[in-house]
Amino acid sequence: MRIDVVTDTYEPDVNGVALTLGRLVGGLRMRGHLVHVMRASERGGSFNPGETAMPSLALPMYREVKIGLPSADRFRARWMKKRPDVVYVATESPMGASAVKAARALEVPVVMGFHTNFHQYMKDYRFSRMEAAAVNYLRKLHNRAAMTVVPTEEMRRTLEDLEFERLSVMGRGVDAVLFDPAKRDVALRQSWGVWRDEVVFGIVGRLAREKNLVTALGLYTRLQREFPDCGMKMVVVGDGPMMNSLRSEFPDAVFCGMRRGEDLARHYAAMDVLLFASETETFGNVLLEGMASGLATVSYRYAASADVVLDGINGLQAEKGDEEGFYSAMRRLLEDGEMIGRLGKQARRTVNARAWDSIHDRFEELLASVAREENGTGCARPPRDAVLECRTVFLSDLHLGTKDCKADECRRFLKHVRAGKIVLVGDVVDAWALSRGGRWRRRHTRFVRTLLKKMEQEDVEVLYLRGNHDDILEKFLPFHMGGLKIAREYVHQAADGRRYLCVHGDGFDAISTNHRWLAMLGSLGYDVLLMLNRFYNRYRAWRGREYYSVSRAIKSRVKSAVNFIGKYEEQLQSLAVKRQCDGIIAGHVHHPADTMVGKVRYLNCGDWVETMSAVLEYGDGRMETVLYKDFMKRLAYGRCGTMEDAETSPGTGDS
After folding, report:
1. Residue 260 and residue 15: Cα distance in Å, rounded?
2. Largest separation between any pair of C-alpha atoms in the chain
3. What is the per-residue pLDDT for 61?
4. CA-to-CA separations, 368 to 32, 88, 357, 374, in angstroms, rounded
5. Contact, 48 vs 61, CB < 8 A?
6. What is the pTM of this model?
7. 20, 255, 257, 326 — which has fewest CB within 10 A?
């Protein structure tokens, strides 16, 4: 898969999100996926191959934290050139929100990660009144994604209670080779002033207000006062905005600053007890690292602790917010050195089974499921080399030149089809819309280029039948140049010998034939309906609801009246019989169909404005009406093109 990752923080930043993303990206690349990281970076910052630096601002009081700025145009420009199969947005900054917006506009599937409880930070930074607003922002943003990945089952339940949708659990792993009790360094302990069997309590992480560090260090100071004859030492590993204030308030603690890699592993192994007093974690990788290093841990029962710690078996726990319970656990370990060793050994055994390989498998599975399954328009993402062999493809009513034309979807459909002939059954270019000021967009040109490439590289014959919206072609009929033919109608001889009359069908619509001005007025009204439809479905997407076509519901009634007045299908049947054909293939009414009208088989190609459908002829002469989303899903699962699929496809029948 081609995967783009969008994040405010990434290696070499030292925090849980950056380290986790580094592991996940590395695991995906090891599995052969093309992963590109788009990360917030200061102006002039260095970055590695496979990364793009995005505009950002550093927090004034916390320079290490960068906030990505909105960059929708940059995301859109990249993804139009190198369309990913799925985008993973790891942070909810303005940059992350703009990435979600750009991906949805281009109909690229989005998965979001819930890595940080930003809404819970509000009270730590004295913005309690904004907590509800922060929750609303996060919920709306995450509900626009196809999936949100959370680290624990507890977090899934919590977010479900807050009305977050489409949540999937993916745990966290730990490098048990890097973090190992065997790396215990006596010389390092001595450098901390530990000469005998004193108990070394440790804190590892970002020195910021939300980590509840004052509570943990305060409880340690209380322990010192109550047990002055018991040897103990406090070691703090990490850096952040509270470093200077904590050093001043707790001068007896040893502050080691930021540590990485092997050096960090040595610091872990030289401790005895890891204190994890944070109350705002989504997970807490530090806890797993301490357990892998053979430490006894004291933590609140939530996030990673609720996931991996069994109280009294491989660590000690207190209920979230229970400072007295946390203090009692610290005191128990100070008084019972054997318990420290016993808990540490069992902790090591526990996390040995949480290797990153299994987490990488889960992450790959989640991304692949979203890439395959439906995104905002209901399309699937088959393998790039998946191709359906067929004899003929019939397409109708693309309406190139209109804003609602699904040219990119039709282009992707054709890329996954190899046929000897493509028949365009009218209204491919919407001359009416262009004459009213419609814009010819780049996606329309890309579709035309795809047709030309197929003609040149695959020797495909293209037959263009004029419709009513492209009736300007009437002046040039008949037209033949190389592999391109333009005609009014065409009799197609199928591989099984049956004859099908191919005609757009507007000649049998009484309004299009006898009242062209009314037809053009109806076309304008349809454009207005489509515009209203876009706004309505943006609102539905904001509410996390699926796509619903108001215009199709209204239009179906109008078209039904047109069909009744003009006896559309019956007249097509009569024409097919008159031309001694077994069936007829038409368009015009934007309604895919496969049914019998009398003794004549009636096939309608539908359109590429809303229904996105086509008619396919296989090598043995079988005809099938397919919907784009069903075709792409079947192709994604390798089940397209067999006899059983053609007979049971959801796209067949009068739909």
Report:
1. 11
2. 109
3. 56
4. 13, 11, 16, 11
5. no
6. 0.55
7. 257
Label residue 533 exposed, middle or buried (CB < 10 Å: 0-12, 13-18, 19+): buried
For 486: left if phi > 0, alpha if psi spans -120 to 50, otherwise beta; the answer is beta
Cα dihedral value 330, 336, 340, 342, nearest 10: -140
CB-CB contact of 312 with 269 (8 Å): no
Report the C-alpha gap between 24 and 8 in whole angstroms.
Answer: 15
Q: Please provide the DSSP assignment of 310-335 as one string.
A: -BTTTBEEE-TT-HHHHHHHHHHHHH
Which DSSP state fits 460? -
Residue the block writes with tokens 């299994």: 358
What pLDDT band is residue 16 in, cutting at 50, 70 and 90?
confident
Q: Are 354 and 173 in contact (CB under 8 A)?
A: yes
| Adjacent-strand bridge partners of 89 | 6, 112
Q: Which of 207, 201, 333 is nearest to 278 (CA)?
A: 207
Q: What is the residue type of 635?
A: L
Alpha helix locations (H) across 31-130?
72-81, 94-105, 118-124
Bridge partners of 200, per DSSP, are 233
Give the Cα separation of 369 and 408 in Å (integer). 22
Instruction: Indicate whether 351 pLDDT > 50.
Output: yes
pLDDT tens digits, one per residue of 488-542: 889 999 999 999 999 988 765 544 444 444 445 555 555 665 566 666 555 554 4
**Look-up: residue for tokens 């008949």?**
478
545: closest CA among 393, 423, 376, 405? 376
Tokens found for residue 392: 């003929």
How far apart CA 471 and CA 464 sit, in angstroms, is 12
Give the 3-state secondary structure of residue 67: strand
Residue 272, phi then psi, degrees to nearest 5: -115, -40
What is the SS3 assignment for 273? strand
What does the DSSP assignment read for 490-527?
EEEE-TTS-EEEEE--GGG-HHHHH-HHHHHHHHHHHH
Q: CA angle, 26 as apex, 23 and 32 as ends, to 5°? A: 145
- How buried is 291 (Cβ within 10 angstroms: 0-12 exposed, 13-18 middle, 19+ buried)? buried
3-state class of 282 per DSSP?
coil
